[in-house]
Automatic annotation (TrEMBL):
Keywords: Acyltransferase, Amino-acid biosynthesis, Arginine biosynthesis, Autocatalytic cleavage, Cytoplasm, Multifunctional enzyme, Transferase. This is Arginine biosynthesis bifunctional protein ArgJ. It comes from Brooklawnia propionicigenes. CDD domains: OAT. GO terms for cellular component: cytoplasm.
């Protein structure tokens, strides 16, 4: 299931000494060709880390030969020295794998406002380069973990090509993007412009629609690399579908591993006048601390869903709203529906379906009941 499942890629993950725990903390992914097409999407936060600034420039021409990722430090809000560190990191990788520094993407994750221990980073790059192999994907996925409890990997097989991916992320998950580092590889023969289009479509429906705690990171990066090693030129619609499957799997793994969460919640809004309305309503519900407290306490309190809907600018009539929780319609036409006691919230999965009865558009946001300490203190409060 790893990023080296696709032909033409090698990877490694090592303990470079960036973390004080002696756990793996540096990963290297190398595209061995014959093609080196690349695409990326980044955080929309206006405060961005040095690696994001560097990687935006590196991928601008649609070419990447390698990606280096470290956990144990975000290299964010570190000023000009942080940019110099990102450049030095790319240069070290380039020397190790025989490419240009401008063809190396750099990704970092960890504490904001602290310089990276560059001696450990640079020696770690040399060590990782020596360990590169077609079996190194799993080690790389472990090396990018921070508060993650498990590595996150995904795989999709197309007609004659493979797409693999790895991700890290557990907290600060919010749309556009989540707090994540993601590397996706494929051996399909696809141009950088087409890969960029496919990636934007896939992330818009997956990573952009998960929301754990409403916080957006400074380092969010999703990179896609294509080696062309399979020799297969894919149908772009088919490729986008398979790419979205990989992104969807990774996105769900991110939500499922969020720190302290006990429920994975799908908030689906239907009957909206526009997709924008559907997304606004779904996100408002997904970010409601009171709603999350209710789910944490296994209380199908649909009043909190209606309260969240009411502060949006979406088109709806209050006396036409329907809410269904795990298959039980607890609110019908803005009023009392079936008994809430019929709703079973003891499992991990929770589905909340809202029908606005205002149109034909729909959207889904995936979240969880994570609100840190607020949840446990207020789980029994009802409004």
């Amino acid at each position: 299931m790893s990023i080296t499942a696709a032909q033409g890629f090698a990877a490694a993950g090592i303990a470079a000494g960036i973390k004080s725990t002696a756990k793996a903390d540096l990963a290297l992914v190398v595209n061995q060709g014959p093609r080196f097409d690349a695409a990326a999407v980044f955080t929309s936060n206006r405060v961005v880390a040095a690696p994001v600034i560097w990687s935006r420039r590196a991928v601008a021409d649609g070419v990447l030969h390698a990606v280096v990722l470290n956990s144990g430090g975000a290299n964010a809000c570190t000023g000009a020295p942080g940019l110099e560190d990102a450049a030095a990191t790319a240069k070290a990788v380039a020397q190790s794998v025989d490419c240009e520094p401008d063809d190396v993407a750099v990704c970092s994750t960890g504490l904001i406002g602290v310089r990276l221990p560059m001696a450990a980073v640079l020696s770690g790059i040399a060590a990782a380069a020596d360990q590169l192999s077609a079996d190194g994907g799993d080690a790389a996925a472990h090396a990018i973990m921070t508060t993650d409890t498990v590595p996150k990997q995904a795989l999709a097989e197309g007609e004659g090509y493979t797409i693999g991916g790895m991700a890290k992320g557990a907290g600060m998950l919010a749309p556009a993007l989540a707090t994540m580092l993601v590397v996706i590889t494929t051996d399909a023969e696809i141009s950088a412009p087409d890969l960029q289009t496919c990636l934007q479509k896939a992330t818009a429906l997956t990573f952009d629609r998960i929301d754990s705690d409403g916080c957006m990171s400074t380092n969010d990066t999703v990179l896609a690399l294509a080696s062309g090693a399979s020799g297969t030129i894919p149908d772009l619609d088919d490729f986008t579908t398979n790419l979205a499957r990989v992104c969807w799997s990774l996105a769900r793994q991110l939500i499922g591993d969020a720190e302290g969460a006990s429920h994975d919640i799908a908030v689906e809004v239907t009957g909206a006048a526009s997709e924008q309305d559907a997304l606004e309503v779904a996100r408002e519900i997904a970010r409601s601390n009171l709603f999350k407290c209710a789910i944490f306490g296994n209380d199908p309190n649909w009043g909190r869903v209606l309260s969240a809907i009411g502060v949006t600018s979406a088109a709806f009539e209050a006396d036409e709203l329907d809410v269904t929780m795990n298959g039980v319609q607890v609110c019908r036409a803005g009023g009392v529906g079936d008994p809430r006691e019929l709703v079973d919230l003891t499992g991990r999965e929770c589905q909340v379906l809202v029908d606005l009865h205002a149109g034909e558009h729909k959207a889904t946001i995936w979240t969880n009941d994570l609100t840190y300490g607020y949840v446990k203190e207020n789980a029994e409060y009802s409004s």
